[in-house]
UniProtKB/TrEMBL annotation:
Residues 126-179 are annotated as: Disordered. SUPFAM superfamilies: Homeodomain-like. The lineage of its organism: Eukaryota, Viridiplantae, Streptophyta, Embryophyta, Tracheophyta. One of its GO terms (biological process) is regulation of DNA-templated transcription. This is Uncharacterized protein.
Length: 268
DNA sequence: AAGCCGGTCAACCGCCTCTAA
DNA sequence: ATTAGAGGCGGTTGACCGGCT
């Protein structure tokens, strides 16, 4: 018996989402929360696959998303995490607040990869390219096979064992002065590094504090207040882009809901 | 102005993992 | 222990856009 398709392919719309569809999905999730994705399209009145809805929400509509290019700090963190975790984009993304695996994966493929190559670093192994070339000359194909993208397959359970040697990660080794300083500050923070391995607390707070680049914030006082609180940007803040990008009114989404929540929280 | 080309990124596809029955 | 369904993940695709000729 073959596996059932994740959704009824007949009558399922594909391709870019329209503003109307976004609106429906947002409204539905705001009202009902994230529940069974399979049921979402039907309940929300969308002719979409449940998976497609989930993807659209997590990668684009989620109000806690940061928009825009990755900052220098984020980029360096991605490089370092990639050196340790390989292409586990979701794991990497979980360490960067407001960033999605898809976003990081795209950024890696379009920006970081090239940047590393330009710097003479192999984006897969994080080893210097010339060093690799010479080692390839000396090692047999069989040996190469025995080390398939080594860093890619770093088991998280091995992480603690490897942490010592990783404390001098290839990425760190090959970073320019400014970047290595930045990374050193990351790596020398034991609790921070432990959190990388233990899969518990994400780097959210730490990174958020480090990331001094305002997202769309001009009022420094507000920004400072946010940093003090280990602030995760309010839904309202992060929904602002929606209003910029799409021709929606805030009331169309029932975003007052968030205002209510926030004002309640402020009262406490 | 039109065509080409490369870069970017949203979205899809198919496999994997987890979990409940 | 097994199985099926649902969600999650990573690789890939293709539409779109801006720059160049």
């Amino acid at each position: 018996m073959g596996r059932q398709p994740c959704c009824d392919k007949l009558g399922v719309k594909k391709g870019p989402w329209t503003a109307e569809e976004d609106k429906k999905l947002i409204n539905f999730i705001l009202t009902n929360g994230q529940c069974c994705w399979r049921a979402v399209p039907k309940l929300a009145g969308l002719r979409r696959c449940g998976k497609s809805c989930r993807l659209r929400w997590t990668n684009y509509l989620r109000p806690d998303l940061k928009r825009g290019l990755l900052t220098e700090v984020e980029e360096q963190l991605v490089i370092d995490l990639h050196a340790r975790l390989g292409n586990r984009w979701s794991k990497i993304a979980s360490r960067l607040p407001g960033r999605t695996d898809n976003e990081i994966k795209n950024h890696w493929n379009t920006h970081i990869k090239k940047k590393l190559i330009k710097m003479g670093i192999d984006p897969i192994t994080h080893e210097p390219l010339n060093k690799q070339a010479s080692s390839n000359e000396t090692s047999s194909p069989a040996e190469n096979l025995s080390q398939p993208d080594n860093n890619h397959e770093v088991k998280e359970t091995d992480a603690v064992v490897n942490s010592e040697e990783n404390s001098r990660s290839p990425a760190t080794e090959n970073s320019s002065g400014e970047e290595s300083l930045l990374l050193d500050s990351l790596c020398s923070d034991d609790s921070l590094m432990n959190s990388l391995w233990l899969d518990e607390t994400p780097l959210v707070e730490a990174l958020w504090e480090m990331d001094t680049t305002p997202i769309a914030e001009t009022e420094t006082e507000t920004e400072n207040t946010k940093n003090e609180m280990n602030f995760v940007p309010s839904w309202e803040d992060n929904c602002a882009w929606l209003l910029d990008c799409q021709d929606f009114g805030i009331h169309d989404f029932g975003f007052n809901y968030f205002n209510e929540i926030e004002s309640k929280e402020n009262q406490h």
